[in-house]
Write a structure and sequence with these properties.
By secondary structure, the protein is α+β, with helices and mostly antiparallel strands. It folds into two domains: 98 residues, 2-Layer Sandwich (Dna Ligase, domain 1), CATH 3.30.1490; 101 residues, 2-Layer Sandwich (D-amino Acid Aminotransferase, Chain A, domain 1), CATH 3.30.470. The protein has six helices and twelve strands. It has a five-stranded mixed sheet. A five-stranded antiparallel sheet has the order 6-5-7-8-9. Strand 8 and strand 9 form a beta hairpin. The longest helix is centred in the middle third of the chain and has 11 residues.
Length: 216
Amino acid sequence: MDAYQKINTIYKRDMENKSKALLVGEWSQPEFEYLKDNRWEWTEKIDGTNIRINWHNEVLTFGGRTDNADIPTHLLQKLQTVFTPDLMKSVFKPQEDNAEITLYGEGYGCKIQKGGNYMSKEVGFILFDIKIGHWWLKRQDCEDLAQSLNIPIVPVIGYGSLEEAVNFVKQGFKSTIAENKNYDAEGLVLKPVVDLLARNGQRIITKIKTVDFKRL
């Protein structure tokens, strides 16, 4: 199963500075500058560990961000409870081209990063993307499948330009999924409302982290 691509921060960093502060206004990819005034979808960035769930030939497998990444034991046990072959078989019908189905999400909660703010006693999985074969599903399709699988999906915080998203994160906002209602959200993940690819074939997607603006 394919690893989820690395998501570049919206701006370049000052690599000569110990804090590696953002160089605000210096876009990390030319595509971001070109598309900055377009409409982007903003979803809450979750502070956890990247998880892949693969369903192919009626075989269910779990992975971290890369094939070498370990999944915390207590999280793996939770995933095996939530996702079963019977559930996947009932939700995903056989693909005509025998395509792999991969769910991408974040494992989060107790003892994962600062996840105790999200869930103080439990761990969970929250979906952010689904790929079937070479196709990335639209947001509405991901929402429908998340409902069928009885799992949460990262919440949409808003829509707007990249600079509007930067200003929103600068002001700070609270996580919409955390048990701790005073917990500052980690930031936003941003995608054009119409999926686009860069010249290298990767999707155009970026992120803004709240902590980066506390360093400026």
